[in-house]
Amino acid sequence: MSQIESMNPAEIRQQQFSKKWRGLAPLEVKAFLDKTADAMAVLLQENESLRRNLDRQQGELGEFKRREQLLKDTLINAQQVIEAMKGNAQKEGEMIIHEAELKAEKILHEAFSRQAKLKNELEDLKRLKVTFSTQLRGILASHQRLLEEHEATGGQTVEV
């Protein structure tokens, strides 16, 4: 603190000077000291007001910096959450695709198995048809011979 800052208006007003021969006019000095004291009082009040204002603004600045950091932290956290959600969605999508591929493979396997079973059944039916046709032709041929023999004997019963 300088000498001027340590002084106050009351000290200026009460300041006494020694009297010298042919010195300054005491009333003018007193008026000047009063005027200087008043100016100093105004300056001290302004200085105190400015200090309070500065302290308040520094407090507000500190609060704004705290809020800014909080916003930055919130944005970083939100970005991390978004990235995690993207990663989870990617993994979930890959799992769904993998499960769908497995289901498709199972369906194809079942379809091929069913197709093979139906082909086997069709082949069995074709063989059964051939066997049935052959047997039916044999029965028809046998009945044809019996009918012809019956007609040849004039309607008499033929023993087989």
TrEMBL record:
Using the record for this protein, list the coiled-coil segments as residue ranges, or answer none: 33-67
- List the protein's name: DivIVA domain protein
What is the similarity comment for this entry? Belongs to the DivIVA family.
The compartments listed are: Cytoplasm
Q: Name one GO biological process term.
A: cell division
The record's Gene3D superfamilies line, in alphabetical order, gives: 6.10.250.660
Question: What is the originating organism of this protein?
Answer: Desulfobacca acetoxidans (strain ATCC 700848 / DSM 11109 / ASRB2)
- Record's NCBIfam families? DivI1A_domain
InterPro entries from the xrefs? DivIVA_domain (IPR019933), DivIVA_fam (IPR007793)
Superkingdom, natural source:
Bacteria
Question: What are the protein's UniProt keywords?
Answer: Cell cycle, Cell division, Coiled coil, Cytoplasm
This protein's record includes keyword ATP-binding: no
What Gene Ontology terms describe where this protein resides (cellular component)? cytoplasm
Q: Name one Pfam family in it.
A: DivIVA
